[in-house]
Design goal:
The structure is a single chain. By secondary structure, the chain is mostly helical. The protein has a single domain, classed as ABC transporter involved in vitamin B12 uptake, BtuC, CATH 1.10.3470. 80% of the residues lie in helices and 0% in strands. It contains 13 helices and no strands. Helix 2 packs antiparallel against helix 10, helix 3 crosses helix 4 and helix 11 crosses helix 12. The longest helix has 35 residues. It is globular. The protein starts with a helix and ends with a helix.
């Protein structure tokens, strides 16, 4: 089966992209969940849709953009939006969560206008919305690899600062950590993760890959680093199993990957409840 999968170039590219996405998405997701900012993934994903729509519109009417992937335009829109999110969070210090619906609404509105300007939805837009294993091109692999390297470098270099800001931002500031600079770098990393993920998972489902493996890992982990390790393992299983299933069943890759992630979460929750019940039953038998 492995030989059959690797025989196809599009599947090779999808697997490479999937492994990278399965690594960086949960790493970023753990920090987002701890910060209670997991919905920011949805907001930036919808801004990315606007960028993709703008890229498709430019491909249609500007010859110079005919061979340029809309993914790069989506990446640019998402990174600009991530900077804007940080500015809104600084402006509304007591209502920082307000930045999320503002960006989300703006992203949806702009995306709808740009898509309508391009005469509505087409196959290209549907691929970005729902993900497709056929969609990952050679140039896009380079963008995904670049995004993955950037995210890993940021997390590796600033792990202690990100950890401190995630759990106690005020104490981290008093300790001399440059809050605004670190938060800006992290927001850019989140934007790149979302942009890198949409070709395989889809814009509408990218937040699921960022949060679902984290939700499963938090059921088992006893430390922050352990949560990251478990989340990466669950994400890799979701991506690889989802891509293989999507290939053989001819399903949308994004939906299949997310369904596998949901299944893993339900299994972990069920196993944990079963273990707790068995322990209580054993204790009752012992005391009885």
């Amino acid at each position: 089966m492995v030989e059959i999968l690797l025989h196809y170039g599009f599947m090779q590219r999808a697997l490479i992209a999937g492994v990278i996405i399965g690594l960086i998405s949960p790493i970023v997701g753990v920090f987002l969940v701890v910060r209670r900012l997991s919905l920011i993934a949805d907001a930036l994903a919808h801004v990315t849709l606007s960028g993709v729509a703008a890229g498709l519109l430019l491909q249609k009417y500007v010859a110079a953009f005919a061979m340029v992937s809309p993914l790069y335009m989506g990446m640019a829109f998402s990174m600009v939006a991530s900077v804007f999110v940080e500015q809104l969070r600084r402006l509304y210090r007591s209502y920082q969560e307000l930045a999320i619906p503002v960006i989300l609404s703006g992203g949806i509105g702009l995306g709808v206008v740009l898509i309508s300007a391009a005469n509505g939805f087409n196959v290209d837009v549907a691929g970005y919305l729902f993900g497709s294993i056929l969609a990952v091109g050679k140039s896009e692999i380079l963008a995904i690899v670049g995004a993955g390297l950037f995210v890993l470098v940021i997390v590796f270099l600033f792990y202690k600062e990100l950890f401190a800001l995630s759990f106690d931002e005020e104490s981290a500031v008093y300790a001399g950590i440059p809050r605004h600079g670190i938060n800006l770098l992290f927001s850019l990393a989140v934007a790149l993760v979302i942009t890198a993920s949409i070709r395989v998972v889809g814009i509408l489902l990218v937040s699921g890959l960022i949060t679902l493996p984290v939700a499963a890992s938090l059921q088992l982990a006893n430390s922050f680093k352990q949560a990251i390790v478990y989340a990466v393992i669950f994400a890799q299983i979701s991506v690889l199993a989802g891509l293989v299933a999507a290939f053989y069943l001819d399903w949308a890759s994004g939906g299949t990957i997310v369904l596998v992630a949901v299944g893993i979460l339900l299994c972990v929750m069920g196993m944990k409840r079963l273990i707790i019940w068995m322990r209580k039953r054993q204790d009752n038998l012992t005391t009885g």
